[in-house]
């Protein structure tokens, strides 16, 4: 067990079923990723079903990605690796960023440790060129009331669970995302609850339940702006 403390918030590194690490917050009784496999979940839910799916359909570059909930930086690192030479602008919103030393999980089952180190070393609230074609912008901001980027192609909706952060999972929040997205834009989330699916449908998304990650949740959600 490894305990860290940031602004009074305690986190604990835990190894998940696929050998990769996640963080656990005792105050919320919540993990940052699935205990069935942090790396497996992030790749499947966000990169494979969101980013790569949209990249295959889009002829407009750069591809604009918005992540709701930066967390440990895993989604950003995986997207950086997956992007290759395609032009990407990746923006992430996080109200409570973790300290860099809390995020030093490079020795815990991550083959992409160099990308994890790079994205977590990038300063907040600045545009940083991670490669000649990949721009990262980590914004310390409250998703529920901040100004959202426009012309979004992909949304990674990775907030804590609805019962832990209900203010993040409202119709108003999804309406704001819908308006900020381009036609054909894709939103993915690990949460497949019927109430969330119905909210996405109500604001205009065409939704589908997809198989969850291997060994993990049975289903996930993807919404597309028609």
What characteristics describe this protein?
5 helices; Rossmann fold; alpha/beta; single chain; 12 strands
Overview of this structure, please?
- Helix content is 26%, strand content 30%.
- The protein is of the alpha/beta class and 226 residues long.
- The protein has a single domain, classed as Rossmann fold, CATH 3.40.50.
- An eight-stranded mixed sheet has the order 7-8-6-5-9-10-12-11. The protein has a four-stranded antiparallel sheet with strand order 1-2-3-4, with no helix packed on it.
- A hairpin with a 7-residue loop joins strand 11 and strand 12 (219-224).
- Helix 1 crosses helix 2, helix 2 (74-83) packs across helix 3 and helix 4 crosses helix 5.
